[in-house]
Amino acid sequence: MELLNRIKEQARTAKQRIVLPEGNEERTMRAANEIVEQGIAEITLIGNPGELKELAKDWGLEHVLNGDIRIIDPANHPKKEAYVDLMLQIRASKGLTREDAERLIINPLYLSVMMIKAGDADGEVAGAGNATGDVLRPAFQYVKTKPGISVVSGAFIMLLKDKHYGENGMMIFADCAVHPNPTAPELAQIAVETGKTTRAIVGMEPRIAMLSFSTKGSAKHEMVDKVVEATKLAQEMAPDMKIDGELQADAAIVPGVGAKKAPDSKIAGRANVLVFPTLEVGNIAYKLVQRLADAEAIGPILQGMAAPINDLSRGCSVSDIVNLVAITACQAQAERGL
Question: How confident is the model at residue 338, as a pLDDT?
């Protein structure tokens, strides 16, 4: 709770423009009302204005009713043709026709990413009523990844009851959500982007452990070689970050084991960011820690996109949406250097 309050406070310092394309979804509308009430971000809902106003009246959502929240009608808005033209600039070479673009732009998930691409919004949160693939497909096609980044990944903030680990019980795990089997260069990108997420969202200086089943050459295998190469590349990409590997999990987080297995490492036994060699490992690890250690897992926080776009679980609560909007706003602040 303390961390989430800190994230919300950070978001308030430079309100970002976050678009919620699932405008008529009840949890989304209630979250939008709460976000504006708390001053976390400027919100745009996508949906039929008349329908949204009626729903807001039924649910007593004053900030939707009094105009504090912007509403865009996907079927009828002033920038519709400009967004279609922009879609064609980006995707005509891929076979997109004007007819296709005019059909897609009335889809709120496409409209929201085009608002971001055109500079009319800073970030997007969706997924309360749509599958992950439907949320991310327009983002990959039009917003794309950051310059020099070829892979999108998902990080989890893990809040542990045992305060001996990480930073007073706080750790970041990645990739636990997106990319099944990254190459060494992709794994290096994931490490660096996770370090940036750690700074931007958590306000914590990252100590990044590149995990393997080997510590400093204790085992030989092509999977170990991948982590060794990724570590070297990540260190070159971000010389200002503390990154080391390859390390086994105990060598990364237990001081006594780290001192024994990797005595020359600056982070062994003290890592607060764990980068897993594959999605399979990362996803299993975060779920085991969440259940067996009764840890709180916040995420996934998508990283590597040219603008922050985050995906919700369809079982999310209103507070989940509020929290992810605050995180998205902080990501947008970091991208803009605010």
Answer: 58
